[in-house]
């Protein structure tokens, strides 16, 4: 990160991994370099108001509230949460503490973890034996189709079963096998439908024509649906481009200040960072 900053950065986008993103955020905050991070932080760990970092991703609190509203709207009195990672219990804490609006009693929640490298079939068989009809699935999109196909095979994808899916990449999952199951499957849709089949190769060429080479897009064209993380990275880059153009038109854009990682930050770095951050927020 330090080597990148010392080369003279106007702003930094990413990385996605929380650990390396935290290092980048710390370095950018110290030297007042605008930083757009793309990962979803745990509850209460967002940047302070005066930070040089901000995000375009939905917060865990927002997603948790949206899922909570779905559970309430569907009047679930009991459900099973199927999740892959322990941090899901932090993100979904509000749902686990739900009370019935009619009786005031806690909503009954059964927790079933399926780690990413474990077989999901035994857990689904246990859910079927227990007679559970309401399932909240907090699993990666790449695993969701396998899970639903096996659930259908053992008879728990029917008109008497209800599913809420937390992944924001539900649009990338082939659900054609469940079209006639009459099950209630509810999820979220952030991307405009016409972008689902967007070809990253075409997008890369469009950016390349402007002299920009985004590393988050694949080098070869593909017809796989664009996932939300890639779309948000693309949005972040577009926002940064528009903000930079605005500052250039108003003659408020200067060369990135020279940064030395082991020296104190420069005041003029913060002046330009603030101007760029405000311009991004107004895009």
From TrEMBL:
Primary localization: membrane
Domain Receptor ligand binding region: start-end pairs: 3-189
Cell compartments where the protein resides: Membrane
InterPro entries referenced in this protein's UniProt entry, alphabetically: ANF_lig-bd_rcpt, Peripla_BP_I
GO terms under cellular component: membrane
Keywords, in A-Z order: Membrane, Transmembrane, Transmembrane helix
Stated name of the protein: Receptor ligand binding region domain-containing protein
Gene3D superfamilies named among the record's database cross-references: 3.40.50.2300
Transmembrane helix is among the record's keywords: yes
Entry superkingdom: Eukaryota
Species of provenance: Ixodes scapularis (Black-legged tick)
């Amino acid at each position: 990160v330090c080597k990148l900053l010392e080369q003279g950065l106007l702003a930094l986008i990413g990385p996605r991994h929380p650990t390396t993103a935290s290092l980048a955020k710390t370095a950018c905050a110290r030297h007042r370099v605008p930083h757009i991070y793309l990962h979803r932080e745990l509850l209460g760990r967002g940047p302070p108001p005066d930070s040089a970092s901000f995000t375009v991703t939905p917060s865990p609190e927002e997603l948790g509230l949206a899922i909570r509203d779905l559970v309430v709207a569907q009047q679930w009195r009991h459900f099973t949460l199927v999740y892959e990672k322990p941090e899901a219990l932090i993100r979904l804490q509000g749902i686990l503490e739900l009370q019935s609006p009619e009786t005031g009693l806690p909503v009954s929640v059964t927790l079933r973890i399926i780690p990413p490298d474990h077989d999901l079939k035994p857990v689904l068989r246990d859910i079927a034996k227990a007679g559970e009809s309401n399932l909240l699935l907090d699993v990666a999109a790449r695993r969701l189709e396998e899970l639903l196909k096996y659930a259908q095979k053992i008879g728990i994808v029917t008109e008497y079963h209800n599913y809420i899916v937390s992944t924001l990449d539900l649009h990338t999952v082939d659900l054609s096998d469940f079209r006639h199951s009459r099950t209630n499957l509810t999820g979220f849709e952030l991307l405009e439908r016409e972008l689902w089949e967007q070809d990253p190769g075409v997008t890369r060429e469009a950016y390349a024509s402007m002299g920009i080479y985004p590393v988050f897009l694949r080098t070869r064209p593909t017809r796989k649906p664009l996932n939300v993380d890639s779309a948000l990275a693309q949005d972040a880059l577009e926002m940064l481009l528009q903000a930079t153009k605005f500052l250039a038109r108003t003659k408020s854009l200067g060369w990135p200040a020279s940064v030395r990682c082991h020296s104190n930050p420069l005041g003029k770095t913060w002046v330009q960072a603030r101007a760029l951050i405000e311009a991004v927020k107004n895009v």
